[in-house]
Amino acid sequence: MQEQYRTVARAGVHEAEISRSRFLCALAPAATEREAQDFVAHVRKEHPTASHHCFAYVIGADASVQKASDDGEPGGTAGVPMLQMLMRREVRYTVAVVTRYYGGVKLGAGGLIRAYGGVVGEALDAVGTITRQRFRLVTVTVDHQRAGKLENDLRATGRAVREVRYAEAVTIEVGLPEADVEPFRAWLADTTAGTAGFETGGEAYGDA
Question: Domain named UPF0029: which ranges (predicted)?
Fold first, then answer.
């Protein structure tokens, strides 16, 4: 698994005018290919009179799914440069749709490539990106007496508390960088005088 990846901070739209054509780049986070396709369909519906709706998306922290469409523009002049911009910026779990309203001036293949790739880059700058870090999930079990202080200590030391469950004992799920698992185990034993349970689990991504 990738140690970290970048994704868009939020959904957003950036507009540019190039040789009288309007280019609107809509960006959105997409956890699955279905979400990406739904977003493309949503943008098409919003702009039914546009000349083209070209798109590109990258799904997976390791970019395992990559798709691009020129939607009627000359082959390789729209979707591919859009995809290349997402990959160059190391952006994952993201869909980009560029809606073009043709302004009557032909841009030529080079001009189209620059326009479609460029507007995605500008949109990424405008919307902003966030970094997601890979974490090892660990579950800490502690008695009710120590739980409140331990949770406060965890948050005070900047550790990612993901979930707290109260039952006979209190379980706290924490996300840790892999390198921090053993130092954390020692810190926990020291902090709770060896009374806390500790169990490692799977992996997940969280804000870096």
Answer: 140-194
